[in-house]
Amino acid sequence: MKNYLLDSLFINMLRLRAICPFSWRVFQFRTCSCKPLISQMITCTDEEQVFDLIEKNKAILSEKQVECAFNILWQFQKQKTSFLKNVDCIRDHPQFLTLHNLATSQMEFMNDDTLVNVLYITQQCATEAHDLVAALVTEAWRRLERFDINVLSKFSSCLANQNLYFSPLMGKIADIVHRNLETIEDLRSLSVLMVSISSLISQRFQEQLVNKTEHLFDTIDSSQVNVARRIVQFLRNIKYSYYPLLERCNKVFLSNMNHLDLDSISKILSLYHSLQFHSFEFVETAKKRLAEMIPLFDHPDGFVKLFVALGPIAGPEEKKQLKSTLLLMSEELTRQQALAVMGAMEEMESRNSHLIKKYLKISVIPSEISILVYALSILPSSHLDEVGISRIEAILPQCDLNDLNGFATSVLRWIHYDRKCLDNTTGKQLKLLQKLDHFGLQRLRKCNNLNLLWEELKSLKGDWFAESLLEETAGTLHRLMDEINYKNVAEIASFISRTNYFSTLLLDRIASVVVQQSEKIHPYVILDIILPFSIFNYDPPQNDEFFRICIQYLNSYLSGLDPLMLVFLGYSLATLGYFPEDLLKAIFNIKFLAKMDSQLEFLCSSLNMKVQFRLMELNRAVCLECPEYQIPWFHDRFCQQQYNKDIGSMNGAQQQIYKMLAEVLGGTNCVKASVLTPYYHRIDFECILDKRKKALPYGSHNITLGTLPETHWESHTQITGSRLPPGAERIALEFLDSRAFCRNIPHLKGKSAMKKRQLEILGYRVIQIPHFQWNSMALSTKEARMDYLRERIFGKSKS
Question: In 3-state terms, what secondary structure has residue 330?
Answer without folding.
Answer: helix
